[in-house]
Amino acid sequence: MINFIKYRLWFLAFSLSVIVLGLYFILAHGFVYSIDFIGGGLIEFDASADKSAKAERLMEKDYPGLDFQKTSTGFIIKSTSLDKQRADKVAKNLSQELKIKKTRFELVGASVSSTNVYKIVVAVLLAILGILGYVAFQFKEWRFGVAAISALIHDSLVLVGLWAILGYYWAVELDVLFVTALLTTMSFSVHDTIVIFDKIQEEEQQGSFGRLSERINWALNLTMMRSLNNSLTVVIMLSSLIILGGESTRAFAVSLMIGTITGTYSSPFVATPIYYLLAKKE
């Protein structure tokens, strides 16, 4: 039986160092926000790979201030300064030059973007409250609830911090899909945590071990392979999506990948050590 609890402080120190690094990048450099948050315009075109490459060269020459992004079916042009008049001009020029068709145009105003931010904050808070309520009802002990929420906050901070790092070095945008990945990460993290806590509680009720650390180590050893196997299937699927998917879904898949790995780590190595430290004081 592996003594995981013996290394609890090392696990927590590693997590804290990753969170501190992420917070530094958030405070020092911030995020690269998409038009969902700061407003702007987006045009999508249906085009072949050859015409997409020609469009990219034309955009660099004639419209250097607009962002160009290839997709599996064509390409997207977007910018915070892209209004309807300018978008119509760009779409007309590209359509005439390359004989391609505009398939989508979106314009997000400042008021809409601020509404999106408000809704996202509310969604995250409701998710946290819902998870806290479920854990409290399931285990009827406050230590389990505090440990589960601590792991949830840990996963959120790690994902958000790493996204700030990716934004700083590779200009990866923070958009609505990232928020979807964040909420998915929260649910994934708590799911694994509940499985471990349920096993710990079961061992306590059966009185299998005298010491708390032995009960926790036994529960972790029993559930570790299950958690790893579940996560591995998700990682394999997301890896194929990152490698073979288009540009529009790659960032979303990367955020889910980070969330999956973080959630798998935090359940045994963050939530469980925190529960042990809280229960040990009693």
UniProtKB/TrEMBL annotation:
Recorded topology in the membrane: Multi-pass membrane protein
UniProt cross-references to SUPFAM superfamilies, sorted A to Z: Multidrug efflux transporter AcrB transmembrane domain (SSF82866)
UniProt keyword Membrane, yes or no: yes
InterPro entries linked: SecD/SecF_arch_bac, SecD/SecF_bac, SecD_SecF_C, SecF_bac
Top-level division of the source organism's lineage: Bacteria
Gene Ontology MF term list: protein-transporting ATPase activity
Transmembrane regions: 7-27, 117-137, 144-170, 176-197, 218-245, 251-278
Subcellular compartments: Cell membrane
Keywords: Cell membrane, Membrane, Protein transport, Translocation, Transmembrane, Transmembrane helix, Transport
One of the protein's GO biological processes: intracellular protein transport
Cellular component annotations (GO), alphabetically ordered: plasma membrane
Domain Protein export membrane protein SecD/SecF C-terminal: from-to ranges: 96-280
Keyword Cell membrane in annotation: yes
NCBIfam families, per database record: transloc_SecF (TIGR00966)
Protein name per the record: Protein translocase subunit SecF
Organism encoding this protein: Candidatus Roizmanbacteria bacterium RIFOXYA1_FULL_41_12
